[in-house]
User: Fold this.
Amino acid sequence: MPVRHKSKGEQTRARLREAAITVFARNGFHGTKVSDIVAEAGLSQPSFYLYFDSKESTYETLVEEFRESLRFVTLSNLIAPDTQKAELEERVAVSFRRFLDFMASDRSLTEIGFFHPPGCSVTKQQMVDWVADNIRKEQVHRIFRKDITAEEIAKLLVGILDQFGRIDADEAERQRLADVCGKLFCSGAGS
Assistant:
């Protein structure tokens, strides 16, 4: 099957998208102007409006793209009902590793979607809801304890990711952090 090359218009749109990600991550939503985006892309302001309606809609599109990918990662982290207790710590570490790898895969998009206002609060609340849905299912199968609510566990997980996701960690460090999370969630803080 022949490789399809992007048209000039597709290339320009992609260039503007990447520039928008870079500038929003660096300056935040309120500190970004369309002129900043086109300067970063090396294009003119009219070219921006050929591909995007406004700064606001561009930002919302990027945040929504981040959220949808984060939702997919969250859903993929549902622990299978037949997971044995002996495997649970490792399985929880795998879940954290997936989150950390996702956040590291595009640090600028993560800045926009997870750390910068105005979108970050909605993103984190949605993530709490998605994780809590997973945990409720896992509690039914006795994977997680029921004396702590699914919402509380989800908020703890999102809080940890809020801190660990800020670390510019290489692959080995992300694995170490994921292992720490697996131990903490499955064995507690005691020895």
The longest helix spans residues 55-76. The domain at 1-52 is CATH 1.10.10.60 (Arc Repressor Mutant, subunit A). The chain has two domains: 1-52, 54-187. The mean pLDDT is 94.
